[in-house]
Amino acid sequence: MNKSVYMIALVAFLSLGLVASNSYAAGTMGKSSFMTFDSRDLIGASVRDSSGEFLGIVSEVMIDSGGHAFAIVNHGDYDLYGEGGANSPVPFEALRISQSKSGKERVVFKMDAEHFDFAPYLDPTKPINRQREADIYLYYGIQPYWTWSGTAGKGGFKEFDSLNLEGAAVKDSCGKVIGIVNEVMVDSDGHAFAVINHGDSDLYGESGVDTPVPFQELRIHQGKAGQDTVALKTDMEHLDFAPYLDPTRPINRQREANLYLYYGIQPNWTRSSE
Questions:
Q1: How many domains does the chain have?
Q2: What percent of the chain has pLDDT over 70?
Q3: Same domain, 71 and 50
Q4: What are phi and psi of 105, to 5 degrees?
Q5: I need a labelling partner for 19 at 20 to 30 A (CA). Which of 13, 68, 102, 111 fits?
Q6: Domain range spanning residue 130?
Q7: d(Cα 244, Cα 144) in Å, to the nearest integer?
């Protein structure tokens, strides 16, 4: 990378940090309990109520095309729901997720256990659409995020299983494969990023570099064989200078805001809910 290009990238990144800092100064900083998780690590985690009673397990993590995640919780009396129980999508805002000292994820349902018994559940004969997703949010007393700025009813709404996205080829706007989805990262409020492994081995080393990209910057297609393919809405050069994952610096709320702002997206926690 030549010196002039490096300086441009450095100035751009520092500018993003200043914008994010001003946003927090205005009193819109996120929750202090902010954490990020690999979606794979959440699958299989037990879900308990606030008193520690076991309710079920996270069977998958489902992400909508706007980049928001639900934990699919398998639960229920087999006499009532059948041998497999019921799979209910629960917004991350209704869960408290933390890590134990051993590194294992702990999931606590913020509401009473009875709330689970009547929760909307997945019906394989009825794919989730925007209205059904709104019903799920409203059941838990949460205003759907897309209504905050009056942008309800975006076209092309879909739901994706995070595991089906892992390993998906990532293409540029010309159809050239430029990387793969290495993992799907979700924060404690349910905002999701596809972590794309890419890059010239001469520049980044043999393993390339892992870059978190908001779902709003991706076009995701589900193939007939069930394998998802991912296309970048932006050009490859934009990805080359994007903030990347640094294992020595865990992502916090400010760094997450920088990721959104780099792609010209206003973090939805900074928007007014009125």
A1: 2
A2: 76
A3: yes
A4: -75, 140
A5: 68
A6: 38-147
A7: 29
* 179, β-bridge pairs: 170, 198
Q: How many CB atoms lie within 10 A of CB 96?
A: 15
Structure tokens at 70: 């639900």
pLDDT of res. 79: 61
CATH number at residue 249: 2.30.30.240
User: Is there a domain that residue 75 lies in?
Assistant: yes
The answer to whether 230 and 215 have CB atoms below 8 angstroms apart is no
pLDDT of residue 115: 85
Task: Tell me whether residue 159 is in a domain.
Answer: no
* 259 & 208 share domain: yes
Q: Are residues 113 and 191 in the same domain?
A: no
Contact (CB, 8 A) for 160 and 168: no
> Can you list the residues of the chain whose pLDDT is less than 50?
1-32, 151-155, 273-274
Per-residue confidence (pLDDT) for residue 238, from 0 to 100: 84
N residues, the chain? 274
The per-residue pLDDT for range 206-229, each reduced to its tens digit, is 678 899 999 989 998 876 666 788
pLDDT at 225: 64
Rounded-to-integer distance, Cα 257 and Cα 266, Å: 8
> Does residue 218 form part of some domain?
yes
CA distance 28 to 208: 35
Last residue of a domain, one of 97, 118, 147: 147
Asked if residue 152 belongs to a domain, the reply is: no
